[in-house]
Amino acid sequence: MGVIEINGVSKSYGQLKALSDISLEVGQGEIFGLIGPDGAGKTTLFRIMTTLMLPDAGSGSICGLDIVRDYSRIRRIIGYMPGRFSLYQDLTVKENLDYFATLFGTTVSSSYGTIREIYSQIEPFRDRRAGKLSGGMKQKLALCCALVHKPAVLFLDEPTTGVDAVSRKDFWTMLSRIRESGVSVFVSTPYMDEASMCDRLAMIRDGKIIGTGTPAGIVSGYPYRLLAVEGKRMYPMLKILRVAEGVISCFSFGNSHHLAYDPAKTGKEALLKTMHAAGFDDCSVREIVPGIEDCFMQLAGK
Amino acid sequence: MTMREFWASVRKEFLHIFRDRRTILIVMIMPVIQIILFGFAVSTEVNEARVAVCGDMSDPQVARIVDRIDSNRYLEVTGELSAPEEIEGLFRRNGADAAICFGRNFGSRFHDGRAQVRIVGDGSDPNTARMITSYIAGVLQDVQQDADISISGEKVPSMTPVVKFMYNPAMKSSYNFVPGVMGLILMLICSMMTAVSIVREKETGTLELLLVSPVKPLWVILSKLMPYLVLSVFNFTTILLLSHYVMEVPVNGSIALLSLVAVVFVVTSLAIGLLVSEISSSQRTAMLICGMGLTMPTMIFSGIIFPCESMPAVLQWFSDIIPAKWFIIMVKKVMIQGDGFRSIIVEFGILAGMAAVLLAVSIRNFRTRLQ
Question: Which of A67, A88, A129, A148 is the best residue to mutate to test the B interface, defined by the most B CB atoms within 10 Å of its own CB?
C-alpha cells in the first residue's frame, strides 16, 4: 500500500476545472515528482493532499488516513512547504524554527538530529530576520521548519522556484538524504531538468495527469526518433521545419529545436538538404536521446 | 494544544506588534493623541467669544449693556460698528463671532418698552453660534430684570429659569468626548488590528502552515486575539488616566464596573475583527471594511458628535446595532454619573448579548481549511 493514494480527485473553482480525475500512488521512501507548467493545478493538488482543501470528487489517503475524514491526524504526520516563502519575515531564523517546533509539539533540540545537516548551514544567521535572508537560505529555513517535527511525508510545492542554480542542486542533494532517513517526499516543480532527480514522477497539464512512471521509463516510452537542429535565425527556421516532409513535431528548446521525425520518410541528410534549399546554410543537425521535456511535449500534444 | 503552544503563539504575535513601527504607532501613540486632540483642539466650548457692537455708545443704557457683556466670562466686546451693514464684512474677515445692534434712541424707548435690539450670530458653525447668542440673550435678560426692579421699586412677580447641568456644570465637552474616544479607540484597535493581523497571515501564506499544524484553529484564533486584549487593557488605562488627570473628567463610579464594561466591549470588538478577517482577502480590504464599516458609523451613530435622539427613527434603529453606542452610554453613566450596575443592566445585557452572538458566529465561521 502506498504512503499517498489519490483516486479520481477532481476540483473546480466555479467554471474553471483545476483538477480532473487525478489518481496517484506514492510508495514508502520515494521522491515523487509532480512536473507541470504554471497553472497546471499542482498547488491545488497539494492543498487537497495536505487537507487544506476538500476535493469535489474522489478520495485519497496519506499513510492510510483519509484526507477528508482524518484531516487532524494527517496534519500531525505531514510536513508542508507551500509554494511561496511562507514564514514570518519579521521573526529571526531561530524564532521561526522555535515557533514551528513548538506548534508541532516538539523542540528544536529534540529534533536537532533530523534537521542538523540543513540547519547547520543557516545556523550562523540564526539571529537574522527571515525576510533578510537570500533565496537559497530562505528555502533551507522553510525546509527545516517543515522537517522539525519528523514528518512521515514531506510535501514541497515548487521548492526550487526563484532559487539560483547552485542552491537548486544543493536542494536536491538534501532531498535524497531526507529520503534515506525513510521520509517520503512529494515535490512539484516547473523545471523539467529536475525530473530526473525523482524516483518516480507524474506529468500534469491543465488539471490532468498526462503520464506517470520512472524518469527512465517515461523516456523509453518516447515513440519517435529525435534530432536537435541548431543554426542562426532560429524562429524562421522553426516555421520551415514544422512543415517539412516526415516531421512529426518540432519544438523550440532554448538554443536548439527538437524535431521528432519518421525515419521512413526523412532523415538527417534529407533535412539538411531541405534547410539549405530554404537558404539556411549554417545548420547543424544531430541525433539525440529524448529527455523528460520531450516526453512532456509529446504527451501534452496528444 | 497545551499551554506551551498557546503562549508561544501569543509571544510570536507580540513580536509582530513590537517589530512593526506602524503598528506600534497606531496602538500606543494614537490613543494619546486622539484624547488630547479631542480634549483640547476639537472643543465645542465657548471661551471669550468676540462680540461687535453697533449702536449709539453715548446712550447710557447701551453703555451699561455693553459693559455687562464685556464683563461676562464667556464674552468679550471687540469693536464698535457704525452701521449694521458692516457686520457681514466683519464676519467674513473673522473679526467677530457675534454682533449686537441697538435700535435708534434705544435709551429713551427702553423706558417706553419699545426698545429694539438685534443679536446677529455667525451661523457657519451652528453649535457655537447658538451658544454665543444664548449667552448674549442671557445678559439682555438680566438687564431687563434689573430694569423691572428699578422701575417698580420692588420685585414684580416673575419667574427666571435656572438651568443647571447636573453632571457637567461647566458644560465641558470633554465629558462627552472621553467616553466616545474611549469607545472609538478600543473598537479600532481590537477590530482593525486583529482583522489586519489575521489577513496578513492569509496573504503571506503562513495561515496555511498554521492550519496544517496539529494545533486546533480555535487556539490559533485565541492566541491571535490575546495580545490585542492586553493592548486594549493598556489603552483603556492610559485613556482613563489621561482623561482624569489631564482633561479633569471625574471618575465618579466604580472602576471595577467600568473595567468590566470595557472588557465586554473589547470582546465584542475582537469578535467583529475576527469576522472581518474571515470575509476579507487582503489587508487593504480589511482596513477599508473596518474604517468605513466600523469607525464611521461608530463616530456618527454612537452619539460622539451628533446626539442620537435627534436623528430620524430609522437611523436611531440603526444606531442600536452599533456596539459602541451601548458602551458609550454605559461609560457615561458609570464614569460621569457614578451609577451602579443596576442602572446599566439593560445596556450591559444588550452588549453582552452582542458579544456572545458575534463570538459564536466568528468562531464557527473560522475555517479549518482554505476556501
Answer: A88
Sheet hosting strand A225-230, strand order edge to edge: A247-253, A256-261, A225-230, A284-288
Could A91 and B12 be called an inter-chain contact, meaning their C-beta atoms sit closer than 8 Å? Answer: yes
| Delimiting residues of CATH 3.30.70.100 domain(s) in chain A | 221-301
Nearest to A99 among B8, B20, B369 (CB): B8
Residues 202..231 of B with a Cβ closer than 8 Å to A: which?
Answer: 204-206, 208-215
What pTM value is reported for the model? 0.78
Averaged in consecutive runs of 10 residues, what is the pLDDT profile of chain A (302 residues)?
90 92 93 91 93 93 93 92 88 94 90 87 92 89 92 92 86 90 92 89 93 91 89 84 86 88 85 84 86 89 76
**Any bridge partners for residue B52, and if so which?**
B79, B99
Taking contacts as CB-CB distances below 8 angstroms, the residues of chain B near A87 are 206, 209
Is A103 close to B5, i.e. CB distance below 8 A? yes
Minimum Cα–Cα distance from B19: chain A residue: A90
Cβ of B210 and A103 within 8 Å?
Answer: yes
Chain B: nearest CA to A270, how far in angstroms?
55
- Residue among B15, B204, B215 whose CB faces A103 most closely: B215
CATH of B49-152, one of 3.30.200.20, 3.30.70.260, 2.60.40.420, 3.40.1710.10: 3.40.1710.10
- CATH 3.40.50.720 fits domain A4-219: no
Residues 6+ apart with CB under 8 A from B355: B264, B265, B267, B268, B271, B323
DSSP E strands, B257-355: none
**CA-to-CA distance for B37 and B185, rounded, in angstroms?**
13
- What CA–CA distance (Å, rounded) separates B234 from B232? 5
Which residues of chain A are in CATH 3.40.50.300 domains? 4-219
The rounded Cα B120 to chain-centroid distance in angstroms is 29
Residue B1 has pLDDT above 90, yes or no: no
Which residues of chain A lie closer than 8 angstroms to B15, CB-CB?
90-91, 95
Min Cα distance A214 → chain B (Å) is 30
- Select from B224, B262, B282 the least CA-distant residue to B348: B262
**Nearest-angstrom CA–CA distance, A255 and A238:** 12
Tell which CATH architecture fits domain A221-301. Answer: 2-Layer Sandwich (3.30)
- Give tens-digit pLDDT for B22-72: 888 888 888 888 877 776 666 556 777 888 888 888 888 888 888 888 888
How distant is the Cα of A119 from the closest Cα of chain B, in angstroms? 19
Domain boundaries, chain B: 3-42+172-365, 49-152
Half-sphere exposure of B205 (CA within 13 A, CB side): 13
Torsion angle of C-alpha atoms B8, B13, B15, B18, degrees rounded to 10: -150
